[in-house]
Every structure is written in structure tokens, then in C-alpha cells.
Amino acid sequence: MKFRTFSFMWLLVTALPLLADSPAEQEKQSDNKADPKTATEVSPPIKLDGIFQAVRQSELMVDNEQLTEFKLLRILPHGTTVKAGAPVIWFDTDGLDEKLEKAETEYRLAELQMEADEFEYEQFLESQELDRDAAKRARDNARSDYDHFMKIQLEREIADAKQDLKSAEFSVESAKEELDQLTQMYEEDDLTEESEEIVLRRARFTYESAMHRLTNSKIRIRRSLDVLIPRREASQEETLDRALMRYDKAMHDLDIAQRKRELEMERKREDVEETLRDYEQMREERKDVVLKAPHDGIVLHGKLNRGKLSDKPVSWSPGSKLANRTVIATIADPAKLQVRVDLPEQHRALIEPGKPVTLTAKAMPDVSFAAKVREVAEVPYVPGKFDCVISVPMRKVSGVRPTMACEVEIEQQVQDDE
What we know:
This protein has helices at 2-20, 23-34, 94-188, 194-286, and strands at 40-54, 57-61, 69-75, 81-82, 87-91, 290-292, 297-301, 321-323, 327-332, 337-344, 356-361, 368-376, 385-391, 405-415. With 418 residues, it is of the alpha+beta class.
């Protein structure tokens, strides 16, 4: 019974091609070949190399502002599967703690220096107030002296000069009257005694002296009124102007000095705050002595370039010194993959999003599956090559991991309308 069933199936499979090549079918095919208007030329498929890339992947590196030099203590082996939050990289903490202690000492010293600077600044402000008061007193004293001179002293000096002239004139007048009286008295007496002559001679000398003093007084008073007093008045005005200028300059200098000192103090405060921020940031960065996986995935040492591993194997060993922002490892999630292709420029016009392709993992050449182009770059990322991303249906892939290579086969047809 089983043998007959097998024979029937074999005859059925053998007869199907013969039925397909019936005379009517053969005639139809012959007609199609003979009609060039319906002929379709099938070009060979395009075959490109691609790389399976994790849609979700994260780079593990030290990206600090303060603690920028690290020494590797331990790292999980390349290819290790980890869960989210699992430790992946450990750093040596000896050098970090030493730098942290030094930063703390610098901050404490800066804080003490700031305290001394604040005290000195308070004294500076108090001394400025004293300097301002002294400048105001000097200005007010100059104004008071000027006002006293112009309102009182100038008038008194003029009055004194005039009074001195009157006194000199009165002295002359008195001496002359006395001389005239003595002369008249002695002239009436024919016999003038010798003593009377002496008195008369003294009176004449007194009169002559008074006349001399009057002349000198007139010269002195005229010079005082015409020259000395106006000169003193001008000097008082100049003294006041200079006092006002000194006051303005003192106020200006004090304001400049205060603003400059305020800016210096502000800069010092900012420096102390920056030192504190650096120290606190360093304390926070000190906590990151263990880098953990941000999500599930596979630990791949080094940086991936468009999904590919470096041509030269990345090998980390305990004690390795790592610079800041160096990608130490990449966590690639194999749960969802895509294929990254370097599309040659001559094929760019034939590839558009949504175009079907066939993927074959080079690690499993007997397994192929259909996929679709997700996106194609409009401009090349390097000369002659465009970035192309192909979506991978994960339900059809088993055993494929990120960084594995694959072959991308793209069918192309060119229909000749002639």
C-alpha cells in the first residue's frame, strides 16, 4: 500500500512538467518570444555585503569634566551577554581618591582665602566712606572760605583800605592844624623863645611825616584796591575751583576703585564657587567607578563603526590607562537587528525605501529570508558610497548576532518597451 502511494506521487511529479509544456502552452511561449514588444529582459541580481547591526546599542565610556584619567581594573569578556544594570567595567579608585582629596584641600584653602578677602573688602568700603567724607569736608571748607571772602572779607578789606586812607588824611590834617596854630601864635610874639622854636620845628616835622605817610597810604591803598584785592579774589575763585575739581576727582577715583574692587571680589567669589562646583562634580564622578549596561545586550569591546567591529581586535587589560571619552565597550541588543549596507553610487538610482531584498547570513549560507529597504541616504557619506538601512524581520532569524556579515541580494528588472 505504501509503495503504490509513493509510485503515484512520483508519476504525478513527473507528469506535471509535461502537462505544463502542452502544445498550446508551447505555442504561447513561442509567440511571446517572437513578439519583441512583450519581451522582458531580466538582469542579474545585485549582490552587496552588509552587516547586522543592533537597532539599540549604547557605548560605554567615561565622559567626565573633572576625573578624566582612569585606570582599568576589570572588564567583562568580549561577547558576554548581560542584563540591564549589570556591571560591565570596573576602574581602579586609588588615583581618583588622591585627586579628590587634593581638590577638597584646594577648595578649603580657597574658602579661607575668600574669608580673608571679604574682611579686607569690608575694611576697604569703610575706608572709602572716610575718604568720601574727607573729600566732602575739603570741598565744603573751600566753599565756606570763598563765601566768607566774597561776602565779608573782601568788603572789609576795601573798607579797611579806605579807612586807612582817611586816617592818613586825618593825621595830615591834624598835624597841619597844629602847625598852623603854633606858627600863628609864634608870629604874634615878636620875641620867640628858643623853646618855642623847638616846638614849632617838631610840629613841622610831624606834619611832613604825616604828609609822607599819606602819600604812602595812597599808593598802598590804591595798589590794594586795584591789584591786591582783585588778585586775592581771583585766587579765592581758583582755590574753590581746584577744590571742586579735587572733590570730583576724588569721587570719581573712589567710584572706580570701588567698582574695580567689586569686580575683583565677584571674580574671586565665582572662582570659589567654581572650585566648589568642580569639587562636588568630582565627588559625583567618583561614584561612576563602575560602568553598567544601560539595557540588555552583548558586550562588545571597543567602538563599532556602522555596525562593524574594528579590523584590529580591541584588547583591554587590567591597568590600562583610559582617556576621557574613549569608547571602552558597546552594548548591542540582539533582540532587534537591521542591516547596514554601503551602497555603491552606481546602484543608488535602483534602490528606494520599501524595495524587497533577500538576506543571507554568511555564518548560515543555507538560510535566506526576505526583507525590505527601510531608508537610503540622499547624499554619500564618503565618496561613491551611500548609507542604506534594511529592516530585518527577527521572527525569521535565529542565531544571528550583531556585527555578523551577510549578503544582500537585490533583484532588478529592466523592461524594454521596443
